[in-house]
Amino acid sequence: MVNGDLATKTYTVSFNSDGGNNIPAQTGIKYAGKATKPTDPVKEGYEFAGWYYEDEKWSFIGYSVTENITLVAKWNKIVKISYELNGGINNDLNKTSFISSDEILYLFEPTKQEYVFYGWYDNANFDGEKIVSIDCSSESDIKLYAKWVFQINDVADLLKIVNNQRFWSSEIHLEKSIDLSGIEWNTIGNTSVPFTGQFFGNGYEIRNMEITKSSTLERNYGFIGVSGQNCKIENLKIVNAKIDYETSSTFNVGILVANANNKIIINKSLVTGTISIKSSFRYGYCGGLVGRCNQQGNIITNSYSDVSIMSETYGNNTTGGLIGSLNGGQVSYCYSVGEINAISTTQKVSVGGLIGNNVVTESITQIDNCFAIGNINITAGSDDSAVFGGLIVSGPTTTNSFTSAEQNIIVNNSKTEDKNSNYEIISKQEIIDYCRNNWDSNNWNLSKISGLPDLY
Fold first, then answer.
1. Which CATH topology does 153-455 take?
2. Per-residue pLDDT tens for 300-319?
3. Where are the domains of the chain?
4. Which CATH homologous superfamily contains domain 4-75?
5. Do you know which InterPro entries this protein is assigned to (predicted)?
6. Among 169, 211, 280, 390, which one has the highest count of C-beta atoms within 10 angstroms of its own C-beta?
């Protein structure tokens, strides 16, 4: 029985939506009466979890009102998941949100035509470990990035890259050695659309690449014609390549990369073969591995060139056994063993057994643990116009770097003395002994008959 005072008294139930939309109070509720469940409130980014009174969920059916009370809304954070698919199609099983809990949410693979999915990452650079599941205890929104790789398993796959510029910003993996015999090579990347991807050779070889006088190329001749920002090449071997070309234009020539138009990273890569290039009217840059590095910050490590070079120009000629022209950066644990023949019919010739020329100050260039063995033959067309170095024409002091190259210099039809002494001459045997005792065995195999280091 309710006494007379309580029977006539009424109460108010107020609602605190805690950031949600306003819910009007309910008044005039008699003692032991029931509040009416209101429409659920709404709060951006949250899911409504009920009304609570003193940490207990309120039951509008079971609980009676015996005093003025305030019910407080409880919310569960909705964690959003967004997917950067980079041209792919998401799997329908991948959720776009979850409520924070103790559960584990597993991820499923998306698809992309012609590519292989290489995992989800939490950053656009694909640094760190792959993400296969999500801990739902997180209360922060999540963004995932799909990594895609184009795999080369045969000649057709490789030519697909050459003929389709959409692949020139991709990550590419060589899965088998490829023989290009009988195929006229057209470069990957050009001045308008440079190659800005990453090419991982996985230790496989691309054999018998040829660029000859029948090519219809622009002035950049190499496996990669022009590289751009973020380009990286690793563990790639280009073997028995041949570049034989004559042009009336300026040229950049390198068997791996002709023109690195932005800083480039090259590691554990090698080239072998021959280059014969002639410009009948202009100047040129030529290197066994890379023709020209145009920007600062280059990193070229654990790589070598065994390329015989014949470079002839009407104008200035800049040629190096490994790199034609370097605009600063790091060159470490690299070597060149090919013979160099460089000719300019009218102008200056700059030749280095390793690097033809370094065009920036010493402070931003590091060269260490490098050597050059191939002989250098220079013919220049005017007096005092032949400069050379057994390693590099000008630039930084080298560390643990040597040459045994012999130089034969002819200027204006007369043999001349050495124009540059930026190297230390030691015998080939001393270089072999140095490599056996000092080079990093994790990166190099010293079991060759010659005794020179070779990539695994």
1. Pectate Lyase C-like (2.160.20)
2. 999 999 999 999 988 888 89
3. 4-75, 85-148, 153-455
4. Listeria-Bacteroides repeat domain (2.60.40.4270)
5. InlB-like_B-rpt, Listeria/Bacterioides_rpt_sf
6. 390
